Amino acid sequence: MSAxxxxxxxxxxxxxxxxxxxxxxxxxxxxxxxxxxxxxYACAHWSYAAQSGAQKAPDLLDGxxxxxxxxxxxxxxxKILVRDELKxxxxxxxINERFLTKPSxxxxxxKVKGNVGNHGSTTFDLAxxxxxxxxxxxxxxxxxxCLMAVYANGEGPIAHKTSLVRNSNNLxxxxxxxxLVILKMLPGRTVPGFGEVWEILVPAECKQKGxxxxxxxxxxKSDPDIVAGQLL
Length: 232
Prior knowledge:
Blueprint: H1 3-8, H2 16-24, H3 30-45, E1 46-48, H4 57-62, E2 67-69, H5 71-86, E3 91-95, E4 99-101, E5 116-118, E6 129-130, E7 133-138, E8 141-144, E9 149-151, E10 158-164, E11 171-174, E12 181-185, E13 198-201, H6 203-206, H7 214-222, H8 224-229
Parallel strand pairs: 1-2, 5-13
Antiparallel strand pairs: 3-7, 4-6, 4-10, 7-8, 8-9, 10-11, 11-12, 12-13
C-alpha cells in the first residue's frame, strides 16, 4: 500500500507521535487529522537526512516502505496532501539562514538527536544547527513535520540565529554580550541525519591550547561582537 493511502486511512494518527502532532495542531479538524497521520506515518517509515539526494515528494507519497527524506521533501509531500485531500492552498514557509533549534523540538526520526554538543562531549543532542529549514503555512499556522511541531509564526523553531565569525570558515557565533557562544565545526564528523557536527565553546575555552587554530583564534579576537563584549 502506498504511503499516501496509509496516511489517509487514519491508523497512524492514533500512534503516540500522531496524537502529539494532532495536539500541536489544535486537537481537531481536518488539518490536525491530516498532520497527525502524516507525522505518525513518517515516524514509522521514514528516516531523516539533511541532504537526502534527489528524492521527490510525489515519489515519496506513491512509494512504500522505508525512505530517507530531507525537510524540504517532507514539506512538499505534506503540501501535496493538503492541496489534494483538503482542497486548501498551503504556502511555503522557509528559513534561509543558519539557526539553532529550540531544545523542546524533536525530529520525527528518533535516531536524530541533533548535531550540536558542548566542547569535549561525545554527545551532540543540544540542538539541530540548520542552514535552511522548510515548513508550510495553512490557515495562519505553520506546520513543521520534520520537527513534529506547529508554530504561530515563521520563526517558531528558532532558539538562536547564528552568524559567521569574520575571517573564519569554521566558526559561527550565537547570542550577544556575555551570553555569546562560539560554534566550531568538527571536520570529518557525522551524526545521524547530519553531515555537519558542531561543538559549543565559551570564550574562555577558545583560549585553551589546541582548541582553535592560530588563524581562527585571531579571527575571533578581531570579531566585532567579541571586541565589543571584551570577551577575549
